[in-house]
Amino acid sequence: MTPVNGPDARPPVVAIVGCAGAYGRWLTCFLSERMGLQVIGHDPALADSLSPRTLLQRADVVVFSTPIRDTPAIIESFARLADGIEAGQLWLDLTSVKQAPVQSMLGSRAEVAGLHPMAAPPKTVTLKGHTMAVCRARILRWQAWLDALLEELQADCVEIDPQAHDRAMALVQGLVHATHMVQAKVLCVLAADAGGLPGLHGLRTTGHQLDLAVTGRILSGNPAIYTGIQFDNPHMPAVLARLAAAAAELRDAVADGSSDARTAVAERFLQVPAAWFGDSVLAACSHDFERMGYLQADLQDRRFISVYLPQDRPGSLRALLDVFERLGINLASIHSSRTPDGKLHFRIGLDRLPVALESLRAAVEDAGIGLVLDARDGD
Ligand SMILES: NC(=O)c1ccc[n+]([C@@H]2O[C@H](COP(=O)([O-])OP(=O)(O)OC[C@H]3O[C@@H](n4cnc5c(N)ncnc54)[C@H](O)[C@@H]3O)[C@@H](O)[C@H]2O)c1
Ligand SMILES: O=C(O)C(=O)C[C@]1(C(=O)O)C=C[C@@H](O)C=C1
After folding, report:
1. What ipTM was assigned to the predicted interfaces of this complex?
2. Where is the Prephenate/arogenate dehydrogenase domain (predicted)?
């Protein structure tokens, strides 16, 4: 694409501080390949990256994509080093908390916006389908370019001030992460005597499987992010105090064991919150839960074929389905999904096969429309 000009009527040079990190690498790729911009970077993890001074001299836009805990101090050190040459630049950050980093950026003379993509760097080219918080703290000449960047990122952007962001994210992220980190700690103490994770999986519920997915995702992520969100969001101490108090109240009521305690738990933990959620939200949540259950059941099905359709064109799915019709194969389910490395495919659950699995695989590939990524005929 033709790069979008900045306020100086030329495409800006974008510098990424933390360019070797997960988001730094994703953003480098996005800005250079998708937006056609020149991207430079600094990261102590890279022996040959530019020095902070050189980077500040060459950059029009600086993006801080550094560990949550260190970001305010890193921004302040860049502001001290810049010593005025940043006037006219645009400074952005991607930190999962917004108050402290935005405050530190406002200590410079640059124009400032805080961003927070609400997802790990995706395996897709843009942030389409994800939310992103946008804190326009001091935007003047860079308004049009920033708008173009956000449009190209394709996220669902929510304009918010840093304080409101952190207050909300203490519940959206902090509370969710805290409860699942607690689940992880409890599971690893108590699950061994209950058959371990495989034993629990054998007795799974939809809720257990959903929660395990969240817990496992957190445990497989970067600990600096999950500790940063607990320790560096100023609203977390109050949230954790409420969480601990509610858990203690439930524990004490169950230990009490009386009918009165049972009634009190039903009222305080279920009926009062249910009234607060409201009927329409509860109905939507229940429906979501049931759909996740159907999805889990379909994905659990061990008779399936996963097909990648390289030609992203109208009609290729119909051509693929023709093969099944020709072979007299009934489909149990069909889902568009992505492999762990991000490849888009259709996962097709199958009723009992009237032909050998290998014949189906060959027929799909011979039709020249799809590549079989995986195929199973039961366990
Ligand atoms: N990964 C996610 O899920 C995610 C999602 C949304 C927002 N974020 C935010 O993006 C930021 C980066 O996260 P990440 O996942 O890329 O982390 P990361 O740990 O993969 O990357 C951070 C990078 O910063 C570098 N760094 C450390 N000190 C530095 C310094 N003084 N100067 C320059 N670079 C330095 C590190 O070497 C590392 O390469 C964080 O603030 C995080 O909150 C991350
Ligand atoms: O792993 C994911 O995809 C995430 O959503 C990561 C997650 C989260 O768990 O809230 C973690 C930190 C970021 O600030 C945004 C999102």
Report:
1. 0.99
2. 12-284
Whether 5 is covered by a domain: the verdict is no
Domain span at 65: 14-160
Which ligand minimizes its atom distance to the CA of 116? 1
Nearest CA-CA partner of 331 in 349, 353, 311, 343: 349
For 323-373, how does the pLDDT look when each residue is reduced to its tens digit (9 = 90+)? 999 999 999 999 998 888 888 899 999 998 999 999 999 999 988 888 999
Whether the Cβ atoms of residue 288 and residue 280 lie closer than 8 Å to each other: no
Same domain, 199 and 140: no
> What pLDDT sits at residue 176?
98
Q: How many domains does the chain have?
A: 4
25 CA: nearest ligand 1 atom: 16
Cα separations (Å) of 345 from 123, 142, 146? 14, 39, 33
| pLDDT tens, position by position, 24-72 | 999 999 999 999 999 999 999 999 999 999 999 999 999 999 999 999 9
Q: Whose CA is nearest to atom 1 of ligand 2?
A: 120
- Same domain for 116 and 139, yes or no, is yes
With respect to residue 358, please indicate whether it lies within any of the assigned structural domains.
yes
- Rounded to 5 degrees, φ, ψ at 90 are -110, 125
* pTM attached to this predicted model: 0.94
pLDDT the model gives residue 203: 95
**Three-class secondary structure of residue 204 per DSSP:** coil
Average pLDDT on 288-302 reads 94
| Cα-to-centroid distance, 173 and ligand 1 (Å) | 17
Pocket test for ligand 1, best of 56, 132, 225 (most atoms within 8 A of CB): 225
| Centre of ligand 2 from the C-alpha of residue 230, in Å | 13
Q: Which two tokens stand for residue 126?
A: 């843009």
Q: Identify the residues whose C-beta falls under 6 Å from ligand 2.
A: 96, 118-120, 173, 217, 221, 225
- CATH code of the domain containing 358: 3.30.70.260
Atom 32 of ligand 1: nearest residue by CA position: 43
**272 and 320 fall within a common domain:** no
**Ligand with the closest atom to the CA of 77:** 1
Instruction: Residue 93: name the closest of 133, 140, 125, 59 by CA.
Output: 133
